[in-house]
Amino acid sequence: MSDHNDVVARLVKQFEKKGFKVQTRNNNLPSSAKRDESIYRPDLIIRNRDDQIIYLVEVETSEGGKAVVGAAILADICMKKMGVNNKPKLLFVFYKPESNLKLAEKRLKELKNRVSYIQLVPALTENAARELIPHL
After folding, report:
1. Contacts of 66 (CB under 8 A, 6+ apart)
2. For 66, phi and psi rounded to 5 degrees?
């Protein structure tokens, strides 16, 4: 199993312990899209008990530049197309110690006023994300 998959598996366990529904496969968004039609495919889709998407989670292997911007824009487009009433939070989890979270934060801050259908939350390390999840 790759480092990326290991991190995804650990996050799944954390969210499921908290009682959330976690989707890791067929994360085709908008939800009506087939794999070859999807606009965006996050690593995790987290739903509450009412089946509403409350978190989109990206486990990042990169430096947090283009990947963060692209995922945020695509997530926003998909939530608009799906007519989602709540604004799901988009969470970026960086697991490599050399990842540049400051760059990710800068990019997310610049996008904050440009997205309307999602909430951008600060990028986190894996450990910080795993500490946060039990308090959601």
Report:
1. none
2. -60, -40
Handedness of CA 2, 60, 119, 73 (dihedral sign): negative
pTM of this structure: 0.93
Q: β-strands 21-23, 44-47: how paired?
A: antiparallel
**Residue pLDDT tens, the chain, 136 long:** 589 999 999 999 999 999 999 999 999 999 888 888 899 999 999 999 999 999 999 998 777 777 899 999 999 999 999 999 899 999 999 998 878 888 898 999 999 999 999 999 999 999 999 999 998 8
The CATH number of the domain where 50 resides is what? 3.40.91.50
Total tally of structural domains belonging to the chain: 1
Give the separation between CA 73 and CA 14, rounded to whole angstroms: 26
Specify burial of residue 89 (Cβ count, 10 A radius: 0-12, 13-18, 19+).
middle
Question: Do the Cβ atoms of 22 and 12 come closer than 8 Å?
Answer: yes
